[in-house]
Amino acid sequence: MTERVVRVCGLAKSFRFGGQTVDALREVSFDLDRATLVGIVGTSGSGKTTLVNLLGGLDSPSAGEIWVDGIPVHEIPESRLSGFRREKVGFVFQFYNLIPNLSALENVALPLEFGRVPARLREERARQCLTLAGLPRERHRHPPGRLSGGEQQRVAVARALVNEPAIILADEPTGNLDSAMSRTIMKLLFSLVREHGRTVVVVTHDHELARQADRTLVLEDGRLKAG
Amino acid sequence: MRNLYRGIRNVWRNRSRTVVVLCILALAAGLGLVMLALEEGVSSQVGAMEASVGTMIEIRPAGVYGMMSLGGLGILGRDPGTPADDPPPGLPTAMLEEIAGMPGVTTVAPYVMTIARDQATSTAGMRFARGRMVYGVAPGGDLTVLGGGQVEVVSGRGLEPGDEGMPVVVIGTAIAEREGVGLGDRLLIQDRWFRIVGLHQSALRMAGLGIFMPYDVALEVFELEGLTQIYVWADSIGRVDALRETLQGQYGEIADVVAQKDSLMGRLDEAFSSLSSASRLGLLLSLLAAGVVVFGSMYLVVRERAREIGILKAVGASPRDIVVQFGTEAIALSLAGALLGLALFVALGPAVASRVVQAAAPVPAVPRMAGEILGGSGGEALSRFGDGAFGRAFMGGGRMGMTVGTVEVALTWSLAAKAILGGLGLGLAGGLIPSLVAARLKPAEVIRRD
Fold first, then answer.
1. pLDDT reported for residue B317
2. Contact B307/A58, CB-based, under 8 Å?
3. What is A36-60+75-226's CATH topology?
């Protein structure tokens, strides 16, 4: 029996630009099951990133409901969204977005640090996740500047995993990598779903990846066209 | 704790900028410390002056200033309209006991000044009247001449308790030479014989011509109606005003009551005000400059690291975590600047302070001012003596002139503590707004920024 981990109902988001209101998302509704890899595809400006930001609590919806792991994200005040993100969401960005003056290990341990997890536990957990993401142990103490793009993205994936989130949101995680490294990262994401039961939402332009996903949501002009 | 650690670590991320910012902060802090030290030095000097001279109150017969019986010589003054032949009133000796019993009074000193006239013969054989200055003081008290200067007993003894009512005098060496008398000899004054128990000397010629005797003897011999002055010392500077008012209330009809601090400290304030104003302005400008530098630097940091702040928030940092991290960075920066400023102060502080003192309160001007202050007690004509011997002990004036030129600026624990607290305060003040701006950044907006 499948377990639902995300529920989105009538979701809408609009922005104001120069006195005009732009609807980035309109009446979007869907459910996601646990331990699936979901691809979100669509042209530029179709609302993919906006949707991921709303799911991850980086932004607040203009209307509609978002439930993640039973939590009504749309009701959480902005001042408390950081707690939700720390406990329920893991992010992987296109440009890795690691903190440059921290080591790989320290970057991965950041969410645990903000969760006030004791230092020894943090390090142990961060090492496990880095190993799982495929970064050799001797590279754990290296700062991002001394890692390749692929290695940095592995660190980013490890950071997204470290707090055992309900969902991992990856916004074009292979967009800045060559094709070989892209395949390696995608394999890593698929393994998180298949072997570790994680739920991963991937925004991508890669149709091959979208085809391999358990489910694909297609966005067009802020509306969900398929999925 | 990790937020604090990260904040401190981040100070060194942009090394070249940090070095520039630290140099500016160190300069501002060093200059600020010099100004603070000067301000403290000035306050300390003024405090010392207040403590030493500010508690004295002078009581003199109403409408009279200068010496009562010297009106004919034109040295003293009386209120306009007072007939020249009227004998000036004196202060009754009964006041001494009454005043001594008042709360807050530590010392009461009676004082009589007059002139003994006798006949002398010039080298050409002409006879003429000549005057000898006579001071009646309390036995056991200081031997103080007109204008407040003290004399030094160089032979024999001064007037001591037990000399009350006794025909004893302490005379200047100049008089002894002129009269051809010495220690133990007798001296005729106003048709009475006095025994010379001591010889005194002073740098001032006028003081060297003075004769000291017990005040009660002076009153009797010169048939004076009362004392020329009474000096009263209060037990604290805070008590002076109340005591002056009490004395004025009680003796206002027959006497004028003047608190020394009112005239002296008022002038002192003038003397120190330019230095004090300069140091305060310098301190304010230093603090302002340091505050602007910390604020500007942290604001730049927040703008540069907006995306990083977004990432930290995305992975779970609360607004409080962000404020603590960036606030710590601002405080670490300010503290480092303050510590470097302390080092700079130790190395260059005295030289800079000396320049500031010279620029703000030229030393030669101050003794002149001090002279005027001291001269005020004995008449404007005496102001030229003010910078040195005049009233050195009596009013501390000579000392004041020198101390302005040598305000000490040394590193003290208090100054170091102020520098560190100032660094903390500056970090908090300068870093608060940028930290709050950082905490309010919306992660969705800043993460996608290039």
1. 93
2. no
3. Rossmann fold (3.40.50)
